[in-house]
UniProtKB/TrEMBL annotation:
Stored InterPro entries: 6-hairpin_glycosidase_sf, 6hp_glycosidase-like_sf, Glyco_hydro_8, Glycosyltr_2/OpgH_subfam, Nucleotide-diphossugar_trans
Location, primary (coarse class): membrane
GO terms under cellular component: membrane
Protein name: Cellulose synthase 3
Annotated family: Belongs to the glycosyl hydrolase 8 (cellulase D) family.
GO biological process, one term: cellulose biosynthetic process
Membrane topology according to the record: Multi-pass membrane protein
Localization per Swiss-Prot or TrEMBL: Membrane
Organism for this UniProt entry: Klebsormidium nitens
């Protein structure tokens, strides 16, 4: 077997799949297609043994990519479940969704990856004699760059390892001729170029050929004509050299017009055309290394023949002046290592490598078949490669450095070059959309575009007429037609086209990440929160693990694609620079997108910006500005950590996460901006390099996950409540029966609400259905109490029992709302009979407060309309708050209508009527609820800093701090506004009794949720220590707070079970300051079934208090923030 089969390069086993796609596209077999299948099978059998990519690596990549795709729905569900502010997490969600699409397209590059062996024309066996080597036109494109840049490339071309009589060097100089008035003349740059060529060729004199504009075949490229200056070495020691220039019109078509003028107007005749930028110096073996990929060995004739399936071969780019200009670390990613080492090599497996217009060689018949290069987009070379793929030609890639050029000399020129790439890619996308109603005709109709589309359509729709060999030796025309017709190859072309044209949209992802970082650092709003209300450690860790796993899979798949698939893969620095590039080039990419779209709509031609010295303000300064903004934001976040500490909106751990996030972005844009800053300081561009800084930043980023987990327990500020710390304190998680406290609470809910002696009864007693509502019956009075209804609604929303919640609220709306002309219109009646008759229309403030807060939590937790569909839960809560504050104004036409809160003292009244407004019931002071309203209610209803509810919260805290006994923590039932006891109408208002049991739980709730360093905490500590001194099994149910004398012990468990349950709340609030275990033991020893079956007992009151105590002990009595929703369950 000929060793020279290696000339085709190593091809991976996946090509059996590719060939099956091709040969299954045309329906019934023919003798010709059978022959082609047989040849393909023989070729695959040989070539698979020479692949350099082990199958295990390739399939590992595919497996990881598939797992990544399958994990995506779970990941995005986790983003929803751990969301913070809707807008912030929504932006993250949108950015991640776009990134996911771009990742899918990126991974497709590697699905059929291959890597080619590197061979030479001189290593062919059987040997290919030099006399049979093809003629090659080697072209340098040049415009206004210094002529000196062409010297070394031209000198290298003259000494290439190729027969000089078969090599024809062309300098395609768009700056050789200049127009003065109506005439064209040689410019000083052109004269300098002539002199340089003569010097290199040893004084050879040129011959000149000039064609007028009406004689050239493609007049749009050279409307004024063209001029060719040719230098021929008479001794034939050197290749011929020609300067090809054109007389341009107003529309120049840039590089495409320049090359097309040479190909078709100057009549280049060689079958192969090599293209290089004017500053690119080809290696001596460029042609001998690239031309083998255009050849195939025919076993029948034992000859080498041109492979008419290959349209072009692209090689890698490298710049030899990067280290000199920018430093060895390539801060602007000029080498573009990920693209050249991984993406191009991956696309080569499908024969769909990108054409880049330099360091490549075209098969001239392929260009002729596709009617030449593509006009219109700035990236005409890239579009030309896509067009050749559409015509069925293969684009191959040789991952070898066979030529070296010069990178841009300044940061600004580099950024503008990237912008030009973006403009070209977006223009290609917009041209493919062909929206004639939106885009200008001037943009859509470029030279030869309609003819090209017509020819391609004819090849696809009428192959029997148009599919013919392009030449006598064209044996690849059927294979090309198969590639054109194959459905799956068409899919692959479209996917890779989208990957190319949508790649600039990565800048939108970068912009989103920058905005999120600034919001995080300055606005104290993290994009995600894993340990927040509604979810404990377990669920938070699960969601954190999902998010971390998804990101790991993404990075792992990228690393496999970039590092492991190819022996000549990318370096770690290349991948890191690619990541940095998303942020470095985000601004110019966005400019490019806008410029491309605007040009398509207006029809304005976008100019090709030439290189120049100095600053490019519009391209460079935004990154410098962002650098300083990020630096200032990081400093502010550091101040938050070390000076301000934690606040009600931000924990120290939040600030640390924000700093890590900001430092990561700062490091990403630092490489480009340090070069700009060095240029402004007139120093070498590499002057501000910071070795080891990247590794330090990487360590910080890796620490984010650890910090997040530590933040679960390591909250440094003791004065921050559970809501801000994302951690609700609990009693023992597992009870003596082996069941968790939360499970006990759920079971207890079923017993209390639905057991044999249930307290939750249907509105329609005849059918026992809850469709029209349900109520909690006070068995001791036979009435429906608004207080118990409020407790029940709060318990239902905390336990996620929406059915019961809706039934309760429906019954309140239908039966407990006094109607005009009652002075209590808008309030909830305190006492109602089961048949809906209002017995006492005066509201009970404690009930109103519980209902309003429960409705607000329901709106946050369920984010849905209320049971009757007339409005959402949150709006119902707002209506109740409005009634509490503004009843006197709203009911101005009704006599004796009074606000529930005193507008002067900001304290809740005993009842909203003129008689009882003089004193206050301590059990209705609930500063924890006022803080909820302050944070989450509208400002028009007293929310916000300095609003009514902030003043009400502070007033309640002050009053409770001065009205309780300083030794026992016991409170009288009624107090005056100065905190002194008030005996009330019945003379017992100065006692601590059943009507006062909820004072300490309300204080505990304030401590647990919000304020761990206030007077409420001291009161909880005093109260629990007092009960411990009395004996947890023996303390009384009624006391005289002024003397701490016990008035009633009430050892009968039916009298004290509710008190025993809620006493666990202040014990939890007191924390380590007291021995709380006896209180937990007491609540776990309660026999709920005995309570619910006992006669002559207030089982509804005790049962609901028992549930509140269990909820608090399990850490499930929580705040539900409307910005977060319910959180994980």
């Amino acid at each position: 077997m000929p060793a020279s089969d290696d000339a085709l390069g190593a091809v991976s086993p996946h090509q059996s799949f590719v060939h099956s796609l091709l040969f299954s596209a045309r329906g019934p077999s023919t003798a010709r297609s059978k022959r082609l299948r047989a040849e393909a099978a023989a070729r695959r059998l040989h070539q698979s043994s020479t692949t350099r990519i082990p199958g295990v690596i390739k399939y590992n990549f595919r497996l990881v990519a598939l797992v990544f795709i399958l994990c995506a729905p779970v990941y995005f569900y986790s983003l929803v479940q751990t969301h913070t502010h809707v807008a912030v997490t929504g932006l993250l969600f949108a950015a991640e969704a776009l990134a996911f699409v771009l990742n899918l397209l990126f991974f497709f590059n590697f699905w059929f990856a291959t890597e080619r062996n590197k061979v030479s024309l001189r290593s062919f066996h059987p040997r290919l004699p030099e006399k049979d080597w093809p003629h090659v036109d080697l072209c340098f494109t040049h415009f206004l760059e210094p002529v000196a840049q062409l010297h070394d490339p031209l000198a290298a071309a003259l000494t290439m390892d190729y027969p000089p009589d078969k090599l024809h060097i062309k300098i395609l100089d768009d700056g050789y001729l200049g127009k003065r008035g109506e005439h064209y003349e040689v410019t000083p740059l052109g004269l300098e170029l002539e002199q340089m060529v003569q010097d290199l060729l040893g004084g050879t004199h040129p011959t000149r050929m000039k064609l007028s504009g009406h004689l050239v075949p493609r007049r749009h490229a050279a409307p004024g004509g063209m001029l060719v200056v040719t230098y021929i070495d008479e001794e034939k020691r050197l290749p011929s050299v020609s300067i090809v220039s054109r007389m341009k019109g107003e529309e120049t078509f840039f590089k495409t017009g320049n090359v097309e003028n040479a190909l078709y107007n100057a009549a280049l005749e060689s079958p192969f055309v090599a293209l290089f930028d004017g500053d690119t110096e080809p290696h001596r073996d460029f042609l001998t290394r690239t031309l083998p990929l255009f050849y195939r060995f025919e076993p029948e004739t034992k000859r080498w023949r041109v492979n008419w399936e290959v349209g072009f071969v692209q090689t890698r780019q490298r710049f030899k002046n990067v280290a000199h200009r920018f430093g060895p670390d390539d801060p602007l990613n000029q080498s573009n290592g990920v693209f050249f080492s991984a993406i191009q090599a991956g696309r080569d497996g499908l024969g769909m490598a990108d054409s880049l217009g330099t360091n490549e060689i075209y098969f001239r018949p392929a260009l002729d078949d596709a009617l030449g290069l593509v006009y219109g987009p700035l990236s005409g070379d890239l579009a030309t490669g896509v067009k050749l793929h559409n015509f069925g030609w293969k684009g191959l890639y040789l991952n070898a450095v066979l030529a070296e050029g010069l990178c841009r000399n300044t940061v600004g020129d580099t950024l503008l070059e990237r912008k030009r790439w973006v403009v070209g890619s977006i223009q290609m996308l917009l041209l493919s959309l062909n929206w004639r109603a939106l885009f200008s005709a001037r943009f859509l109709v470029a030279p030869l575009r309609l003819q090209t589309e017509a020819r391609l359509a004819a090849l696809l729709k009428r192959p029997e007429r148009f599919v013919n060999p392009l030449a006598d030796d064209d044996v690849g025309y059927e294979a090309r037609q198969m590639r054109r017709e194959s459905f799956w190859m068409g899919v692959a072309r479209r996917v890779l086209f989208l990957e190319t044209t949508l790649r600039p949209l990565g800048s939108l992802v970068a912009f989103a990440m920058i905005i999120l970082a600034l919001v995080f650092m300055l606005g104290n709003v993290p994009p995600l929160r894993f340990f927040h209300e509604g979810g404990g450690w377990t669920y938070g860790l699960i969601y954190l693990g999902i998010v971390a796993s998804y990101q790991f899979l993404r990075l792992f798949a990228i690393s496999l694609g970039c590092y492991s698939l190819f022996l000549d893969g990318t370096s770690g620095q290349d991948v890191w620079r690619e990541v940095q590039g998303y942020f470095t080039f985000a601004w110019v990419s966005a400019l490019g997108i806008v410029e491309a779209v605007a040009g398509a709509v207006s029809g304005r031609r976008i100019q090709w910006e030439t290189q120049k010295k100095g600053l490019r303000p519009l391209a460079e300064l935004p990154n410098v500005f962002l650098l300083f903004v990020l630096f200032g934001s990081i400093c502010i976040a550091f101040v938050n950590i070390f000076v301000k500490g934690s606040t009600e909106r931000r924990t120290t751990m939040d600030s640390m996460d924000a700093v890590a996030y900001g430092v990561f972005l700062w490091v990403c844009i630092w490489p480009s901006t340090r070069c700009t800053l060095a240029a402004l300081a007139r120093m070498p561009l590499w002057s501000f390099k910071m070795p080891k800084f990247v590794w330090t930043a990487a360590g910080i980023v890796i620490g984010i996950a650890i910090i997040s987990i530590m933040g679960r327990y390591a909250q440094p500020a003791p004065n921050i409540g559970a809501f801000e710390r994302n951690d609700y304190p609990t009693g023992p998680i597992i009870g003596p029966d082996g069941v968790t406290i939360y499970q006990n609470a759920s079971l207890a809910f079923q017993t209390v609400f639905w057991g044999p002696n249930k307290i939750f009864l249907p509105a329609d007693a005849a059918t026992s259905t809850y469709d029209t509502g349900g109520y909690v019956l006070d068995s001791s009075t036979g009435r429906v109490s608004s207080q118990l209804m409020g407790y029940a609604m709060m318990i239902a929303v905390q336990l996620n029992q929406r059915t019961e919640f809706d039934a309760l609220w429906r019954w309140v709306q239908s039966n407990m709302m006094p109607q005009p002309p009652s002075p209590y219109y808008g309030y909830v009646a305190s006492q109602v009979s089961p048949d809906g008759t209002i017995l006492n229309p005066a509201p009970f403030p404690d009930a109103e407060q519980y209902m309003a807060t429960a409705l607000m939590f329901a709106g946050s937790r369920w984010q849905a309309l209320g049971p009757d569909g007339s409005g959402d839960y949150r709006q119902a809560a707002y209506d109740m708050l409005e009634t509490m504050l503004y009843t006197q104004r709203l009911n101005a036409n009704f006599a004796n209508s009074t606000d529930m809160f005193n507008g002067t003292s900001h304290l809740v009244t005993y009842q909203p009527d003129p008689v009882t407004r003089a004193y206050i019931r301590t059990a209705t002071l609930n500063p924890a609820f006022y803080e909820v309203w302050r944070r989450f209610a509208p400002k028009r209803l007293g929310a916000g800093v300095g609003g009514f509810w902030e003043k009400a919260r502070d007033a309640a805290r002050v009053l409770l701090s001065v009205s309780g006994n300083l030794n026992s923590g016991l409170f009288p039932e009624l107090v005056n506004t100065d905190g002194s006891p008030n005996k009330g109408p019945d003379g017992t208002g100065d006692q601590w009794s059943k009507d006062t049991w909820m004072v300490q739980p309300n204080l505990a709730l304030d401590v647990i949720w919000w304020d761990r360093n206030g007077a409420a905490l001291d009161a909880c500590v005093r109260y629990t220590n007092f009960l411990l001194a009395e004996g947890v099994k023996f303390y009384g149910i009624r006391y005289q707070p002024s003397t701490n004398a016990m008035l009633e012990q009430g050892l009968n468990f039916t009298q004290r079970v509710g008190l025993v349950a809620v006493n666990a709340m202040p014990a939890i609030a007191a924390g380590s300051a007291v021995n709380a275990q006896p209180f937990f033991d007491a609540i776990q020893q309660i026999d709920l079934a005995a309570i619910m079956t006992a006669t002559n007992t207030d089982r509804a009151f005790h049962g609901l208090l028992y549930l509140l105590g269990l909820l608090t002990s399990s850490g499930r009595y929580r705040v539900f923030d409307p910005n977060y929703g319910a959180g994980p369950e």
